[in-house]
User: What shape does this take?
Amino acid sequence: MGVVVVGAGMAGVACAVELTAAGVPVRVLDRGRAVGGRMASRRIEGRPVDIGAAYFTVRDPEFAEVVGRWRSAGLARPWTSELAVLGDASRERSAGPVRWAAPGGLRSLVRDLASGLDVTLEHEVAHVGPGPVVDGEPADIVVLAMPDPQALQLVDPSSAAAAQLTGREWRPLIAVAAGWESRRWDPLPAAFVNDNPVLSLVADDGDRRGDAAPVLVLHSTADVAREHDAAPDGAIPPMLDMLRRLLDVGVPPTWTHAHRWRFASPAGKREVDFHLGDDGIALAGDGWGTSKVETAWRSGTLLARAIAARIGP
Ligand SMILES: Cc1cc2nc3c(=O)[nH]c(=O)nc-3n(C[C@H](O)[C@H](O)[C@H](O)COP(=O)(O)OP(=O)(O)OC[C@H]3O[C@@H](n4cnc5c(N)ncnc54)[C@H](O)[C@@H]3O)c2cc1C
Assistant: This one.
């Protein structure tokens, strides 16, 4: 029967890669049209724009090996270790870890990991029950690799998984990509916007991608995302107004695109890396640790090792 992984974001794909390496048969199902989940890159005006995760950081030595392979293949690039902090009419610098970006968009990294896996896209799973079964089909183990509220919709309310998934708030966010005829701002490369009612981050997509395209991606606060949940385009004017107060971008952009993330990140972190229930239903993702790309990779990878140890090849 093998393992069924629901969710082809970083956690689900990393889990499937590790299971395959251990000789455990695995299928991946995702309702989206492409792998990547929140590592989402959308093609706008002829180039990919990262409208999900802004960048990623690397601490885990094993993840560093994966990133090293992406770098050698030209898929990932160290972007910056210094971000700006934007305030009203002020710009400071904030040193930190190296932030990595992908010339082809962050989704391209998940696509690379997923090559060779058995992945079925545009397949929405409705129910995961005792057995375990996925929409009635039996499996040895079912992995739900997605935000808690999405996984909670799939499992029985009385299940052990449901108990793990209940009680943690997830914050929404609206990402607005905007393009200009030409670049009027000094490279940022990205800027935190602290204690601001409208914006939380501004990222220079041309700078991180390495092609210098005049494209910025703005991240809203959770409050703005809640206010415009039903119609995310309504967030574009206030977010652009706030951008103009913080940064001299000159004329209005020539195009904009808004994307709503209803479950962008968990409000709190967990101290465990995954859940593997006695009932064969397992949970992984960036909700298991701090909400980061690296956490998702680690959660999926460690879960796969625990599954392989339980059921073997
Ligand atoms: C706007 C934004 C900015 C971010 N910025 C950063 C950052 O700068 N640095 C960083 O490290 N991290 C960042 N993150 C977090 C990072 O994107 C996540 O930690 C990581 O991508 C999570 O991967 P995942 O596999 O756990 O979940 P996801 O990527 O959410 O994958 C879940 C998958 O499950 C699928 N799915 C859900 N329900 C079903 C169903 N019923 N049937 C089938 N498939 C289903 C979805 O389609 C999706 O593909 C950001 C996230 C967002 C949204």
